[in-house]
From TrEMBL:
Biological-process GO terms, alphabetical: pyridoxine biosynthetic process
Cytoplasm found in the keyword field: yes
Summary of the function given for this chain in its UniProt record: Catalyzes the oxidation of erythronate-4-phosphate to 3-hydroxy-2-oxo-4-phosphonooxybutanoate.
GO cellular component, one term: cytoplasm
Protein name as it appears in the record: Erythronate-4-phosphate dehydrogenase
């Protein structure tokens, strides 16, 4: 059995080496010739999987190690009896920690003694948005949820949803929607001139979902006007050839890596391994945990003298500080225009190892129960 896989999927041989022969290829440039003799195809979001790629091939199963499926022609796969699996939720915690780190930077910029004073509107309450909401509520934030498809299907009063305009009135607005164009609630350019005009310099807009959800041309115009909001983008229109004019105007820019923690990547691989094993009728013997290496930083300690917000900020940034990715991206986009797409992809391909908060043990000596609860809510391991 031949398994053709995106070369940037981690631990391919560890998970799939005893299932079949693994052939690594470039996901961005994957061609019909690459997959013609494959039995299994494993991709990430940079590969369009459709009739043009697969017609005439032997592929009987497609797996994407991502939460999204807008790069997959699901109807064509179904019509041709090709098995499929995605990895929903695999990197949800990684994206949550990305947003928390951005929030900590924003609270510091606003000189807030307590970051939970910020109100947060979450647009798109699926695996990522839902987990983010739960974490923020545990941390004491006031959260408003906007998800029109879920609101339309809601059959009980367990969750209260608001419309987009109400979410856009929050101090921070974070987008976690899929990209849809032809659905009852399309998200393509969901945020355009009208929505951007509602935002002020007292607000932060974060997008770590899909780049096309925000009209980047309209965003450029808005950021050139008075009273413009701060904007943090991890996703962009026209990736990988992003518009440097947008990057130059946003407060924080990162190269589509919010979900790129090692844990998130490996969990995506594990989920597709499990799905393929079930498809082939094979036993599931491997788990992500057995392949995770020891983290570079394993323990930090705080005493009773620690300020609660400062301690949380330090621990979060010990695991991940988005300013490093921002600096790398801005430096990379100084390259000639015809090289920027390759360089953008390179930033993702060669992304340094980033571990989640669960990899870090936090020792607390004489600290408050409030601080202990906050560290637990974020996901740190505690030693008290």
């Amino acid at each position: 059995m031949l398994i053709v896989a995106d070369e940037n999927i981690p631990l391919l041989e560890a998970f799939f080496g005893d299932v079949g022969e693994v052939r690594r290829v470039s996901g961005r440039t994957m061609s019909p010739e690459d997959v013609h003799d494959a039995d299994v195809l494993l991709v990430r979001s940079v590969t369009r999987v459709n009739r043009e790629l697969l017609e005439g091939s032997r592929v009987r199963f497609v797996g994407t190690t991502t939460i999204g499926t807008d790069h997959i022609d699901l109807g064509w796969l179904d019509d041709n009896a090709i098995g499929f699996s995605a990895a929903p939720g695999c990197n949800a915690n990684s994206v949550v920690e990305y947003v928390l780190s951005v929030l900590s930077l924003y609270a510091e910029r606003r000189v807030l003694a307590d970051w939970s004073q910020l109100t947060v509107g979450i647009v798109g309450v699926g695996n990522v948005g839902g987990e983010l909401a739960e974490t923020l509520v545990r941390l004491g934030f006031s959260v408003k949820l906007c998800d029109p498809p879920r609101a339309a299907q809601q059959s009980d009063d367990s969750t209260t949803f608001v419309d987009l305009d109400e979410a856009l009135a929050c101090d921070v607005v974070s987008f976690h929607t899929p990209l849809t164009r032809d659905s009852a609630f399309p998200t393509y350019h969901l945020v355009g001139e009208r929505e951007l005009a509602m935002l002020t310099s007292e607000q932060l807009l974060i997008n770590s979902g899909r780049g096309e959800v925000i009209d980047n041309a309209a965003l450029c115009k808005r950021l050139d006007r008075d009273n413009a909001p701060l904007v943090a983008l991890d996703v962009w229109e026209q990736e990988p050839r992003i518009n440097p004019d947008v990057l130059n105007r946003v407060w924080l820019g990162t190269p589509h890596i919010a979900g790129y923690s090692l844990e998130g990547k490996v969990q995506g691989t594990e989920m597709i391994y499990q799905a393929l094993s079930r498809f082939l009728g094979l036993p599931i013997r491997k788990k992500a945990g057995q392949f995770l290496p020891e983290p570079a930083l394993s323990k930090v300690s705080f005493t009773s003298a620690a300020d609660e917000c400062a301690a949380i900020r330090m621990a979060l940034r010990a695991c991940y500080d988005p300013r490093q990715d921002d600096a790398r991206l801005r430096h990379a986009m100084k390259a000639p225009a015809d090289e920027r797409g390759v360089i953008f992809d390179g930033l993702r391909r060669d992304y340094p190892v980033r571990r989640e908060c669960s990899s870090l043990k936090v020792q607390l000596k004489g600290t408050s129960k409030s601080l202990q609860d906050s560290f637990r809510a974020i996901g740190f391991k505690l030693k008290i």
